[in-house]
From TrEMBL:
Alphabetical keyword list: Cytoplasm, Elongation factor, GTP-binding, Nucleotide-binding, Protein biosynthesis
Keyword Nucleotide-binding included in the entry's annotation: yes
Gene field: selB
Annotated GO MF terms: GTP binding; GTPase activity; RNA binding; translation elongation factor activity
InterPro entries in the cross-refs: EF-Tu_GTPase, EFTu-like_2, P-loop_NTPase, SelB_WHD4, Small_GTP-bd, T_Tr_GTP-bd_dom, Transl_B-barrel_sf, Transl_elong_EF1A/Init_IF2_C
Identification of the protein by name: Selenocysteine-specific elongation factor
Cellular component GO terms held in the UniProt record: cytoplasm
Residue stretches in coiled coil: none
Domain Tr-type G: 3-229
Gene3D superfamilies: P-loop containing nucleotide triphosphate hydrolases (3.40.50.300), Translation factors (2.40.30.10), Winged helix-like DNA-binding domain superfamily/Winged helix DNA-binding domain (1.10.10.10)
Length: 616
């Protein structure tokens, strides 16, 4: 296994032994991080790291105090494993329940519950506490769940916990698959002589010293001058790292906790987004969430307020869920599946958690939007694409894949190609594109001149898609003999010379001897000048080919003769005048220059007026 960084979030009721566990595992007591913080570059949420083989396990405290609930949620951002401490002497407490509710929303796959202080209780009580913990945590759907007992005075239990952490680290899957860098900022400050520092959790991609970076939602463009990972200088920072970035030319007051540092021009801040919201069953009162009301809102490292617009419901009671629109008090840059929380303003309690499903409604009406969101929630991405293809009229912009879905870019690009015409991030459904194209064809073929600018309104939100449509319609029109000039498509009236050229072209297929101006003049009762003009028109269009100074032949007849001459020479060793007559019925004045044309193909060798195919 290659090297990796794992973030473990420690949770649990205050005084249930989290700090003591971490100190026994790492040799560092959490109180030390306050001293390090004063030196300027440590992360305010992390406090220790443990090295096992090629794996770095970083511990992030999820504080237990009620007043630090905001830090708890911010600390949970980017966590891979939850280490949940439950005091064996006290068992499950109200704060245990609240923390467990909150953490269950975060889409973290691995839970390790540790019954601490196991040396202070009898074996019978320890067994009872184990059963209680198992029953309680079985309410939550973690794919990987382990319950251990531990005592800081029993080295075997500490070794067992360390081994369990290492085993679980091998089960981690990257929740956000993207090559583009994104970090959620939890602090911004300045150091004399260095400038502004932003710290936080790296969620996707990698950043290197000297790279350009964008601070969202403000859209500030800057560069990374220096990087620290786990308080040490580093040439780069990657997904899973806790990092500090020294950015150039940015005032620390322009960057805030809750902002994003990201690869430029990739991610889209959203003024609102759509989500699945679930109220916690541990909340006792009714009407926990009301439609169109504002609540304290926490997502990533951001804390503010947000209005909740329920889709299809007026309120949510404890333990209920609904799809909803979330309108934060300032734009945020969410990722697909990202967790968020709501707290009631009075009393101050965390009442609900949700996950982001879409940062746009793509112009869908309410019913189709609900269908689309349900597909996204259930991992039915192709079904969601079908909803968009069927119901969108016009163009849409798809956000960065990691903001749109949990599927990788290969799968997404396949679906885009299957259901949409694309130009950059702009898409239009193939069904819609065909519908507008058919409208254009019908108007063109009606015989009236068609102004192309009249079709711009159907693709007005994307100049790139409009350009593709315009070029497609012009090409289609010209293929069918129409002309495009000055924004108009029309059927050009043919001149007398063009009509004569078309007539001669048809006659030349019926009678191959109609090959020069003299023959054409006498046969069609036209002047030699008119015949010569018609032959020039046909030559310029590539419809006929000049054989010698006087004679011409249709290009399709000529190509057919060459092909058959090659086949004949393969079968009969060579081709001469006699064999040429079996391929094409023509007078000598045509056959002789035709055979001479074989020499110009480079395929034949001429010996005694017999053409042999060259070897190889």
């Amino acid at each position: 296994m290659g090297s990796q960084n794992v973030i473990v979030g420690t949770a649990g009721h205050i005084d249930h032994g989290k700090s003591a566990l971490v100190e026994r595992l790492t040799g560092i007591h959490p109180d030390r991080f306050r001293e390090e913080q004063e030196r300027g570059i440590t992360l305010d949420l992390g406090f220790a790291a443990l090295e096992i083989d090629n794996t770095t396990i970083s511990f992030v405290d999820v504080p237990g105090h009620e007043k630090l609930i905001r830090n708890m949620i911010a600390g949970a951002t980017g966590i891979d494993i939850i280490l949940f401490a439950v005091d064996a002497t006290e068992g499950i407490k109200p704060q245990t329940i609240e923390h467990a509710d909150i953490l269950s929303v975060l889409n973290i796959e691995i839970l390790i519950v540790v019954l601490t202080k196991s040396d202070k209780v009898s074996e019978a009580l320890l067994n009872r506490r184990f059963s209680e913990a198992k029953e309680f945590f079985n309410r939550f759907s973690y794919p990987h769940k382990k319950i251990l007992t531990a005592s800081i005075y029993d080295q075997n239990t500490i070794d067992n916990l360390r081994e369990t952490l290492y085993e679980c680290s091998e089960l981690i899957k990257n929740r956000y698959i993207s090559d583009n860098y994104l970090m959620r900022i939890d602090r911004s400050f300045s150091i004399k002589g260095a400038g502004t520092i932003v710290t936080g959790s790296c969620i996707t991609g990698q950043i290197k010293t000297g790279d350009d970076i964008e601070l969202l939602p403000a859209g500030i463009q800057t560069k990374v001058k220096n990087i620290q990972v786990h308080s040490k200088n580093s040439p780069s920072a990657s997904a899973g790292d806790r990092a500090a970035l020294n950015v150039t030319g940015v005032d620390k007051d322009k960057v805030h906790r809750g902002d994003i540092a990201a690869a430029p021009k990739v991610f889209s801040p959203a003024a609102s987004f759509y989500a699945r919201l679930r109220t916690f069953s541990s909340i006792s009162r009714k009407d926990v969430i009301k439609h169109n009301k504002s609540y304290r809102f926490l997502i990533g490292t951001y804390a503010g307020e947000a209005k909740i617009i329920l889709l299809g419901k007026k309120s949510l009671n404890a333990g209920e869920s609904a799809l909803c629109k979330v309108v934060p008090d300032k734009p945020y840059t969410p990722l697909f599946g990202e967790a968020f929380f709501l707290r009631s303003l009075s009393p101050q309690v965390t009442v609900a958690g949700g996950r982001v499903l879409s940062i746009d409604n793509f112009g869908l009406d309410k019913n189709n939007l609900i269908t689309f969101l349900s597909c996204m929630e259930n991992g039915q991405t192709e079904e969601a694409f079908k909803v968009l293809e069927t119901h969108i009229e016009g163009t849409i912009d798809i956000p960065a894949p990691v903001q749109f879905t949990d599927k990788n870019s290969v799968e997404i690009n396949h679906l885009i190609k299957k259901y949409f015409i694309s130009a950059g991030s702009s898409l239009t459904p193939r069904k819609y594109f065909s519908k507008i194209t058919d409208m254009g064809k019908e108007e063109i073929f009606s015989g009236r001149p068609v102004s192309l600018s009249g079709y711009h309104k159907y693709f007005k939100n994307s100049e790139n898609i409009w350009k593709i449509f315009r070029e497609n319609l012009i090409r289609l029109a010209e293929t069918n003999g129409y002309t495009y000039e000055n924004d108009k498509i029309f059927k050009k009236r043919k001149s007398v010379h063009e009509k004569l050229a078309e007539e001669i072209y048809e006659k030349m297929s019926q009678d191959i001897s109609l090959s020069n101006t003299a023959n054409l003049s006498s046969s069609l009762n036209i002047s030699e000048k008119a015949a010569a003009n018609a032959l020039t028109i046909l030559t310029n269009k590539g419809k006929i080919k000049k054989l010698d100074e006087k004679n011409f032949i249709r290009t399709d007849i000529f190509d057919n003769f060459i092909q058959n001459a090659v086949e004949t020479a393969k079968k009969e060793q060579y081709i001469d005048l006699k064999k040429a007559k079996t391929i094409i019925e023509a007078p000598r004045k045509i056959l002789i220059p035709l055979i001479e044309q074989l020499d110009k193909t480079g395929l034949f060798t001429n010996k005694d007026n017999k053409r042999y195919l060259k070897e190889g």
